[in-house]
Amino acid sequence: MRERMSNFEVTKNENGKIVDFLEGIELDPTPEEFVRQQYIRVLHFECQYPKNVLAREVPIYYGSKELKDKSGNPVRADIVVYRNAKAKKDRNQGAIALVVECKAPNITSGYNQLVSYIYNTSAEGGVWYNGEAPQYYRRLFSPTNDLIDWTGIPRKGEAWDALGRRKKAELKRPKDIKGLLRQCHNKLHGRGVDGDEDDLTMDMVRLILAKAMDEEKSGEYCEFYCTPEEYKTEEGRNAVASRIHSLFAEVVSENRDVFSEHEKISVGPRAICDVVIELQRYRLLSDLHAPDDWDIMGHAYEQYTATYLKKKRGQFFTNRLVVDFLCQAVDPEYQDIILDPAGGSGGFLTGAMRHVRKKILHSSATDISKQRQLDKHRTNLFMVEISKRLVKIAKTAMILNGDGHAGMIQGDSLGPVADLNERVVARCGLGKPTVILTNPPFAGVGEGRITDPHVLDNFTTGIRWSTRSGEYISTGERNTEGVPPEMLFFERCLQWIAPGGKIGIVMPESFLDTQTYYPARRLLLEKFKLLAVVNCHKDTFQPHTGVRTCLLIIERPIKEIDGSVDYPIFMAISKKIGQDSEGFPIFKRDANNELTELIDHDLDDILTDYRAHQNGQLVNSEYRFSIYRHQVDHHLRINPQFYLPNLNETIR
Question: What confidence score (pLDDT) does residue 558 get?
Answer without folding.
Answer: 93
